[in-house]
Protein backbone atom coordinates (compact mmCIF):
# COMPACT_ATOMS: atom_id res chain seq x y z
CA UNK A 1 0.00 0.00 0.00
CA UNK A 2 1.21 3.56 -0.61
CA UNK A 3 2.44 5.55 2.37
CA UNK A 4 3.30 9.25 2.42
CA UNK A 5 5.84 11.24 4.37
CA UNK A 6 3.37 14.11 4.45
CA UNK A 7 0.08 14.61 6.23
CA UNK A 8 -1.21 15.74 2.82
CA UNK A 9 -0.75 12.63 0.67
CA UNK A 10 -1.06 14.76 -2.47
CA UNK A 11 2.49 16.06 -1.93
CA UNK A 12 4.87 13.77 -3.89
CA UNK A 13 6.76 11.55 -1.48
CA UNK A 14 8.89 9.28 -3.66
CA UNK A 15 6.40 6.47 -4.19
CA UNK A 16 7.06 4.94 -0.79
CA UNK A 17 5.06 1.80 0.07
CA UNK A 18 4.67 -0.61 2.96
CA UNK A 19 3.28 -4.15 3.25
CA UNK A 20 0.31 -5.11 5.42
CA UNK A 21 -0.45 -8.62 6.63
CA UNK A 22 -3.34 -10.33 8.41
CA UNK A 23 -2.59 -13.58 10.21
CA UNK A 24 -5.75 -15.56 10.83
CA UNK A 25 -5.62 -18.17 13.60
CA UNK A 26 -7.96 -21.06 14.42
CA UNK A 27 -8.45 -19.68 17.93
CA UNK A 28 -11.88 -18.12 18.34
CA UNK A 29 -12.88 -15.28 20.63
CA UNK A 30 -16.50 -14.08 20.79
CA UNK A 31 -17.37 -16.37 17.90
CA UNK A 32 -14.70 -15.03 15.52
CA UNK A 33 -11.19 -16.18 14.64
CA UNK A 34 -8.41 -14.19 16.30
CA UNK A 35 -6.53 -12.22 13.64
CA UNK A 36 -3.14 -10.59 14.12
CA UNK A 37 -2.15 -7.61 11.99
CA UNK A 38 1.23 -6.29 11.00
CA UNK A 39 2.93 -3.89 8.63
CA UNK A 40 6.50 -3.21 7.55
CA UNK A 41 7.06 -0.22 9.82
CA UNK A 42 7.93 2.75 7.60
CA UNK A 43 10.69 3.93 5.34
CA UNK A 44 11.93 0.79 3.56
CA UNK A 45 9.35 0.08 0.81
CA UNK A 46 7.03 -2.96 0.78
CA UNK A 47 8.33 -6.51 1.22
CA UNK A 48 5.52 -8.32 -0.58
CA UNK A 49 7.68 -10.70 -2.64
CA UNK A 50 9.75 -11.98 0.27
CA UNK A 51 6.64 -12.41 2.41
CA UNK A 52 4.65 -14.24 -0.26
CA UNK A 53 7.43 -16.40 -1.66
CA UNK A 54 9.49 -17.29 1.37
CA UNK A 55 8.42 -16.40 4.88
CA UNK A 56 4.60 -16.77 4.94
CA UNK A 57 4.83 -20.22 3.26
CA UNK A 58 7.27 -21.39 5.97
CA UNK A 59 4.81 -20.37 8.68
CA UNK A 60 1.87 -21.95 6.88
CA UNK A 61 3.75 -25.22 6.40
CA UNK A 62 4.83 -25.46 10.07
CA UNK A 63 3.52 -28.15 12.39
CA UNK A 64 1.44 -26.92 15.35
CA UNK A 65 4.18 -27.63 17.89
CA UNK A 66 6.69 -25.63 15.86
CA UNK A 67 4.77 -22.38 16.31
CA UNK A 68 2.70 -23.00 19.48
CA UNK A 69 3.68 -22.80 23.15
CA UNK A 70 4.14 -25.92 25.30
CA UNK A 71 0.49 -25.91 26.37
CA UNK A 72 -0.61 -25.67 22.75
CA UNK A 73 -2.96 -22.86 23.71
CA UNK A 74 -1.23 -19.90 22.07
CA UNK A 75 1.34 -18.97 19.46
CA UNK A 76 4.93 -18.83 20.67
CA UNK A 77 6.33 -15.90 18.66
CA UNK A 78 9.92 -16.96 19.31
CA UNK A 79 9.24 -20.42 17.88
CA UNK A 80 7.42 -18.93 14.92
CA UNK A 81 10.45 -16.70 14.35
CA UNK A 82 12.75 -19.74 14.26
CA UNK A 83 10.47 -21.27 11.62
CA UNK A 84 10.73 -18.13 9.48
CA UNK A 85 14.53 -18.06 9.87
CA UNK A 86 14.93 -21.71 8.89
CA UNK A 87 17.69 -22.12 6.29
CA UNK A 88 18.59 -18.41 6.28
CA UNK A 89 22.35 -17.88 6.19
CA UNK A 90 24.28 -15.37 8.32
CA UNK A 91 25.10 -12.10 6.57
CA UNK A 92 23.45 -10.64 3.48
CA UNK A 93 20.77 -9.03 5.59
CA UNK A 94 19.34 -6.83 2.84
CA UNK A 95 15.69 -6.30 3.64
CA UNK A 96 14.60 -9.89 4.31
CA UNK A 97 14.71 -8.75 7.95
CA UNK A 98 11.86 -6.31 7.21
CA UNK A 99 9.72 -9.06 5.66
CA UNK A 100 10.24 -11.21 8.76
CA UNK A 101 9.54 -8.22 11.02
CA UNK A 102 6.23 -7.61 9.24
CA UNK A 103 4.99 -11.12 9.92
CA UNK A 104 6.50 -11.05 13.43
CA UNK A 105 4.38 -7.98 14.26
CA UNK A 106 1.22 -9.84 13.26
CA UNK A 107 2.26 -12.92 15.27
CA UNK A 108 2.76 -10.84 18.44
CA UNK A 109 -0.57 -9.09 17.84
CA UNK A 110 -2.37 -12.43 17.53
CA UNK A 111 -0.59 -13.98 20.52
CA UNK A 112 -1.37 -11.03 22.80
CA UNK A 113 -5.01 -11.09 21.66
CA UNK A 114 -5.24 -14.82 22.37
CA UNK A 115 -3.83 -14.13 25.85
CA UNK A 116 -6.39 -11.30 26.23
CA UNK A 117 -3.67 -8.75 27.01
CA UNK A 118 -2.40 -5.53 25.47
CA UNK A 119 0.93 -6.33 23.83
CA UNK A 120 3.06 -4.49 26.42
CA UNK A 121 1.56 -6.63 29.21
CA UNK A 122 1.94 -9.81 27.15
CA UNK A 123 5.58 -8.98 26.46
CA UNK A 124 6.17 -8.53 30.18
CA UNK A 125 5.21 -12.21 30.60
CA UNK A 126 7.26 -13.50 27.64
CA UNK A 127 10.46 -11.46 27.52
CA UNK A 128 13.08 -12.24 30.15
CA UNK A 129 14.56 -8.74 30.05
CA UNK A 130 11.20 -6.96 30.47
CA UNK A 131 11.31 -3.89 32.70
CA UNK A 132 7.82 -2.37 32.31
CA UNK A 133 7.15 1.33 32.64
CA UNK A 134 3.72 2.92 33.20
CA UNK A 135 3.88 5.66 30.61
CA UNK A 136 6.18 6.18 27.63
CA UNK A 137 8.13 9.31 26.71
CA UNK A 138 7.24 10.07 23.09
CA UNK A 139 8.18 12.68 20.53
CA UNK A 140 6.56 13.81 17.32
CA UNK A 141 8.59 13.09 14.19
CA UNK A 142 8.01 14.64 10.80
CA UNK A 143 9.16 17.98 9.48
CA UNK A 144 9.98 16.87 5.94
CA UNK A 145 10.93 19.59 3.47
CA UNK A 146 7.81 21.02 1.83
CA UNK A 147 7.94 21.67 -1.93
CA UNK A 148 6.60 25.21 -1.38
CA UNK A 149 6.01 27.59 1.52
CA UNK A 150 8.33 25.38 3.55
CA UNK A 151 9.01 27.42 6.69
CA UNK A 152 5.38 28.46 7.25
CA UNK A 153 4.14 24.91 6.77
CA UNK A 154 6.89 23.52 8.98
CA UNK A 155 5.88 25.98 11.70
CA UNK A 156 2.24 24.92 11.40
CA UNK A 157 3.27 21.29 11.65
CA UNK A 158 5.32 21.80 14.84
CA UNK A 159 2.53 23.90 16.40
CA UNK A 160 0.17 21.02 15.64
CA UNK A 161 2.43 18.62 17.57
CA UNK A 162 2.45 20.93 20.58
CA UNK A 163 -1.36 21.12 20.41
CA UNK A 164 -1.47 17.32 20.62
CA UNK A 165 0.55 17.41 23.87
CA UNK A 166 3.99 16.64 22.51
CA UNK A 167 6.91 18.52 24.07
CA UNK A 168 9.67 17.16 21.80
CA UNK A 169 9.85 17.04 18.01
CA UNK A 170 12.16 15.91 15.25
CA UNK A 171 12.49 17.50 11.84
CA UNK A 172 14.40 16.53 8.70
CA UNK A 173 17.47 18.24 7.33
CA UNK A 174 19.78 17.24 4.49
CA UNK A 175 17.25 17.63 1.67
CA UNK A 176 17.99 21.37 1.31
CA UNK A 177 21.18 23.46 1.40
CA UNK A 178 22.56 23.74 4.94
CA UNK A 179 21.74 27.45 5.24
CA UNK A 180 18.08 26.67 4.53
CA UNK A 181 18.15 23.78 6.99
CA UNK A 182 19.44 26.11 9.70
CA UNK A 183 16.40 28.34 9.09
CA UNK A 184 14.19 25.26 9.40
CA UNK A 185 15.83 24.42 12.73
CA UNK A 186 15.40 28.01 13.95
CA UNK A 187 11.73 27.97 12.90
CA UNK A 188 11.05 24.84 14.94
CA UNK A 189 13.18 25.91 17.90
CA UNK A 190 11.28 29.18 18.20
CA UNK A 191 8.12 27.18 18.91
CA UNK A 192 9.54 24.66 21.37
CA UNK A 193 10.04 25.50 25.02
CA UNK A 194 13.73 24.59 25.10
CA UNK A 195 16.49 24.12 22.54
CA UNK A 196 17.11 20.56 23.53
CA UNK A 197 13.50 19.62 22.74
CA UNK A 198 14.33 19.45 19.02
CA UNK A 199 16.14 16.69 17.15
CA UNK A 200 17.37 17.01 13.56
CA UNK A 201 17.54 14.00 11.22
CA UNK A 202 19.86 14.25 8.20
CA UNK A 203 18.51 11.03 6.66
CA UNK A 204 22.02 9.60 6.08
CA UNK A 205 22.80 12.01 3.23
CA UNK A 206 25.99 13.80 4.29
CA UNK A 207 29.40 12.66 3.02
CA UNK A 208 32.66 12.87 4.96
CA UNK A 209 33.07 16.59 4.34
CA UNK A 210 29.46 17.80 4.60
CA UNK A 211 28.97 15.78 7.80
CA UNK A 212 31.67 17.80 9.51
CA UNK A 213 30.38 21.09 8.08
CA UNK A 214 26.87 20.34 9.32
CA UNK A 215 28.12 19.21 12.74
CA UNK A 216 30.07 22.45 13.16
CA UNK A 217 27.03 24.55 12.22
CA UNK A 218 24.58 22.57 14.39
CA UNK A 219 26.78 22.62 17.50
CA UNK A 220 25.51 26.00 18.71
CA UNK A 221 21.81 25.01 18.70
CA UNK A 222 21.96 22.63 21.69
CA UNK A 223 19.77 20.11 19.84
CA UNK A 224 18.23 17.10 21.57
CA UNK A 225 20.14 14.96 19.06
CA UNK A 226 21.69 14.96 15.56
CA UNK A 227 20.41 11.86 13.73
CA UNK A 228 21.42 9.73 10.73
CA UNK A 229 24.37 11.93 9.87
CA UNK A 230 26.04 9.94 7.09
CA UNK A 231 25.81 6.59 5.32
CA UNK A 232 24.75 4.04 7.97
CA UNK A 233 27.88 1.95 7.33
CA UNK A 234 30.33 4.87 7.14
CA UNK A 235 31.61 4.42 10.68
CA UNK A 236 34.74 6.40 9.85
CA UNK A 237 32.74 9.57 9.14
CA UNK A 238 30.40 8.92 12.06
CA UNK A 239 33.40 8.65 14.38
CA UNK A 240 34.92 11.84 12.97
CA UNK A 241 31.66 13.67 13.69
CA UNK A 242 31.53 12.26 17.24
CA UNK A 243 35.02 13.67 17.85
CA UNK A 244 33.97 17.26 17.09
CA UNK A 245 30.25 17.29 18.00
CA UNK A 246 29.71 17.51 21.75
CA UNK A 247 25.92 17.05 21.66
CA UNK A 248 24.01 13.77 21.34
CA UNK A 249 24.20 11.80 18.12
CA UNK A 250 21.52 9.26 17.15
CA UNK A 251 22.28 6.29 14.89
CA UNK A 252 21.30 2.73 14.08
CA UNK A 253 17.98 3.28 12.27
CA UNK A 254 19.23 1.76 9.02
CA UNK A 255 21.20 -1.11 10.55
CA UNK A 256 19.22 -4.31 10.92
CA UNK A 257 21.33 -7.06 12.46
CA UNK A 258 23.26 -7.78 15.65
CA UNK A 259 26.48 -8.02 13.62
CA UNK A 260 25.96 -4.51 12.23
CA UNK A 261 24.99 -3.20 15.67
CA UNK A 262 28.25 -4.56 17.04
CA UNK A 263 30.26 -2.87 14.30
CA UNK A 264 28.47 0.42 14.99
CA UNK A 265 29.32 0.12 18.66
CA UNK A 266 32.95 -0.75 18.00
CA UNK A 267 33.79 1.69 15.22
CA UNK A 268 31.38 4.66 15.06
CA UNK A 269 32.80 6.53 18.05
CA UNK A 270 29.43 6.67 19.79
CA UNK A 271 29.38 7.66 23.44
CA UNK A 272 27.35 5.66 25.93
CA UNK A 273 26.74 8.67 28.18
CA UNK A 274 24.86 10.77 25.60
CA UNK A 275 24.18 9.09 22.25
CA UNK A 276 20.94 7.45 21.11
CA UNK A 277 20.27 4.11 19.39
CA UNK A 278 17.40 4.04 16.92
CA UNK A 279 17.19 0.41 15.75
CA UNK A 280 13.66 -0.34 14.49
CA UNK A 281 12.16 -3.50 16.07
CA UNK A 282 10.30 -4.32 12.84
CA UNK A 283 13.22 -3.73 10.49
CA UNK A 284 15.63 -5.69 12.70
CA UNK A 285 14.10 -9.14 11.99
CA UNK A 286 11.16 -8.35 14.26
CA UNK A 287 11.14 -8.30 18.03
CA UNK A 288 13.30 -11.45 18.52
CA UNK A 289 16.05 -9.83 16.43
CA UNK A 290 15.64 -6.49 18.18
CA UNK A 291 15.90 -8.14 21.60
CA UNK A 292 19.24 -9.65 20.56
CA UNK A 293 20.53 -6.17 19.66
CA UNK A 294 19.32 -4.66 22.93
CA UNK A 295 20.94 -7.52 24.86
CA UNK A 296 24.25 -7.20 23.00
CA UNK A 297 24.52 -3.46 23.53
CA UNK A 298 23.25 -3.28 27.12
CA UNK A 299 25.71 -6.03 28.06
CA UNK A 300 28.46 -3.94 26.51
CA UNK A 301 27.54 -0.98 28.69
CA UNK A 302 24.79 0.95 26.88
CA UNK A 303 21.93 2.09 29.17
CA UNK A 304 18.35 1.04 28.35
CA UNK A 305 17.55 4.75 28.21
CA UNK A 306 19.70 5.15 25.06
CA UNK A 307 17.20 3.14 22.99
CA UNK A 308 14.62 5.28 21.17
CA UNK A 309 13.35 2.94 18.45
CA UNK A 310 12.50 4.22 15.00
CA UNK A 311 9.01 3.43 13.70
CA UNK A 312 6.60 6.05 14.92
CA UNK A 313 3.70 3.69 15.56
CA UNK A 314 1.85 1.66 18.21
CA UNK A 315 3.99 -1.46 17.96
CA UNK A 316 7.14 0.34 19.07
CA UNK A 317 5.21 2.03 21.88
CA UNK A 318 4.42 -1.40 23.35
CA UNK A 319 8.02 -2.53 22.94
CA UNK A 320 9.39 0.56 24.72
CA UNK A 321 6.82 0.18 27.52
CA UNK A 322 7.62 -3.49 28.12
CA UNK A 323 11.40 -3.20 27.96
CA UNK A 324 11.65 0.13 29.80
CA UNK A 325 13.58 1.81 27.00
CA UNK A 326 14.23 5.55 26.68
CA UNK A 327 11.13 6.41 24.67
CA UNK A 328 9.34 6.05 21.36
CA UNK A 329 9.20 8.00 18.13
CA UNK A 330 5.66 8.84 17.00
CA UNK A 331 4.43 9.94 13.57
CA UNK A 332 1.15 11.66 14.47
CA UNK A 333 0.73 13.33 11.05
CA UNK A 334 3.11 11.62 8.60
CA UNK A 335 2.82 8.06 7.30
CA UNK A 336 -0.91 7.84 7.88
CA UNK A 337 -2.88 5.81 8.66
CA UNK A 338 0.03 3.86 10.20
CA UNK A 339 1.75 6.50 12.33
CA UNK A 340 0.93 7.59 15.85
CA UNK A 341 -1.27 6.34 18.66
CA UNK A 342 -4.86 5.12 18.75
CA UNK A 343 -7.66 7.55 17.92
CA UNK A 344 -8.27 9.89 20.84
CA UNK A 345 -5.19 8.77 22.78
CA UNK A 346 -3.93 11.55 25.01
CA UNK A 347 -0.34 12.74 25.21
CA UNK A 348 0.30 14.48 28.48
CA UNK A 349 3.50 16.42 29.09
CA UNK A 350 5.24 14.47 26.37
CA UNK A 351 4.25 11.03 27.64
CA UNK A 352 1.76 8.48 26.32
CA UNK A 353 -0.32 6.24 28.55
CA UNK A 354 -0.24 2.53 27.76
CA UNK A 355 -2.91 1.19 25.37
CA UNK A 356 -5.53 -1.03 27.00
CA UNK A 357 -6.94 -2.90 23.98
CA UNK A 358 -5.80 -6.52 23.50
CA UNK A 359 -2.88 -6.96 21.13
CA UNK A 360 -1.26 -3.93 19.53
CA UNK A 361 -4.59 -2.11 19.38
CA UNK A 362 -4.81 -1.30 15.68
CA UNK A 363 -8.57 -1.69 16.20
CA UNK A 364 -8.41 1.66 18.03
CA UNK A 365 -7.16 3.40 14.86
CA UNK A 366 -10.26 3.47 12.70
CA UNK A 367 -8.71 4.26 9.34
CA UNK A 368 -5.82 1.83 9.79
CA UNK A 369 -8.11 -0.92 11.02
CA UNK A 370 -10.36 -0.54 7.98
CA UNK A 371 -7.32 -0.98 5.75
CA UNK A 372 -6.00 -4.02 7.64
CA UNK A 373 -9.44 -5.57 7.92
CA UNK A 374 -9.90 -5.29 4.17
CA UNK A 375 -7.21 -7.98 3.77
CA UNK A 376 -9.52 -10.74 4.90
CA UNK A 377 -12.90 -9.32 4.03
CA UNK A 378 -11.79 -8.84 0.40
CA UNK A 379 -10.88 -12.50 -0.04
MG1 LIG B 1 16.05 8.89 10.97
Give a short summary of the structure:
The protein has 13 helices and eleven strands.
Task: Provide an overview of this structure.
This protein is α/β, with parallel strands linked by helices and 379 residues long. Helix content is 39%, strand content 13%. The protein has helices at 48-61, 64-67, 77-84, 96-115, 119-126, 150-163, 178-189, 208-218, 235-244, 258-267, 286-299, 314-323, 366-377; strands at residues 20-29, 32-39, 135-141, 169-172, 198-201, 225-227, 249-251, 276-277, 328-330, 347-348, 351-353. Strands 3, 4, 5, 6, 7, 8, 9, 10 and 11 form a 9-stranded mixed β-sheet that branches. It has a two-stranded antiparallel ribbon with strand order 1-2. Helix 1 crosses helix 4, helix 4 (96-115) packs across helix 5 and helix 5 packs across helix 12. It starts with 19 loop residues before the first strand and ends with a helix. The model has no long low-confidence stretch (mean pLDDT 97). The chain binds magnesium ion. Residues 201, 227-228, 253 line the site of magnesium ion. The site of magnesium ion (MG) has 4 residues, from loops.
Amino acid sequence: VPISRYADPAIPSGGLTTSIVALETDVRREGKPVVGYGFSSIGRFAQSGLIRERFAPRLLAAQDDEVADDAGSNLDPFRAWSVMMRGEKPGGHGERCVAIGTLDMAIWDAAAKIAGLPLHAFLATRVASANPIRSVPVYAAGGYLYPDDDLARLGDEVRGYLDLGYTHAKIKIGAAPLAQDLRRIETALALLSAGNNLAADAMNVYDARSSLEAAAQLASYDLWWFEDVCDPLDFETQAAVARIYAGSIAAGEALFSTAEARLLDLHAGLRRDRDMLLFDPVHCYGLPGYLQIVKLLTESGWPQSAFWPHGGHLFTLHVVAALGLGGAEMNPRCFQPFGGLGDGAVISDGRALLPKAPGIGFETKRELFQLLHSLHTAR
